[in-house]
Amino acid sequence: MKKYLIDKIVPARKLFSLFSNDIAIDLGTANTVVFVRNKGIVLDEPSVVAVKLSTNQVLAAGKAAKEMLGKTPENIIACRPMRDGVIADFERAESMLRYFIRKVHDNRRTLVRPRMVIGVPSGITQVELRAVEESAKQAGARGDGVYIIKEPIAAAIGAGLPIHEPRANMIVDIGGGTTEVAVITLMGEVFCRSIRVGGDEMDDAIVQYVKRKYNLLIGERTAEQIKIQIGTVMPSNKGESMPIKGRNLINGVPQTVNLHSEEVNEALLETVAHIVDIIKVALENTPPELSSDLVDTGIVLAGGGSLLRGLDALISKETMLPVRVAKNPLLCVVNGAGRVLDQLDFFKEVLMIS
Question: How many CA within 13 A on the CB side of residue 155?
Fold first, then answer.
């Protein structure tokens, strides 16, 4: 009789979990990526929300809201509720998250509120951690079903690194607001550090450089386009350039100047130096036996910042270690969180407790 009951209950639980649409989320400063169990990645949108101030009604989120940045009238605000990898505006972050979750569920009712695995920066405070958990619950997560994982560990899992083995796995996750560096072995961190330097600071460095050199004020979206199109951290003989448009700070009229890749290189040097420095700190704090592993396994780069041209070569030159960019670096964190969602019992040691 007992065996019969067990046989009936277990499949029922599995069927019940299918209706819950469990979710893994990379709640990033620049982009929010959502993974749904048994479906894979279903959403990849900028972490931007547009709200009508008088009613707090969400008018748009993601790509549509990003198009509104810097272009809204007084009664509408388009903003990025995530700063430096954590929630800067709780109410709008919750609205954005709820908007995305409803979009993912196609507005269909589910029998069970979903469980969520969310990636956060390793340097997150307890207050920030509770804010993330509360936002997830308010956005529709099950009360006891919010799991938090540090982004570098999720990125290492998503990059396919064998973090359960007794050898060093070094991951550098360069996101929009933070750079996360971790050395992991046997499901544990030997070293893990987060610095609030990432793609946003690179964009700001370009804005300030153009402002100083050309007396030209450009927006953050223009700076991001410059970084993607001609950004490099290693000297190049190609001599790439692109026209950029902004407002002249002297006479106040629109102006176009031609910006060269060598100038972008110069603008980014200080920001990139911070990233190289924290990698060196990680190597200095790694025990000798694990350091010897890194001679063979090297360093793996993840996150959008890892796509900056020449960055892997520069880090390899500075550390004298092999460096490679992970496959699909922008999706490493959410893919890792998705694997954790599928194997919660196996990965329970890497989850954070608030």
Answer: 34
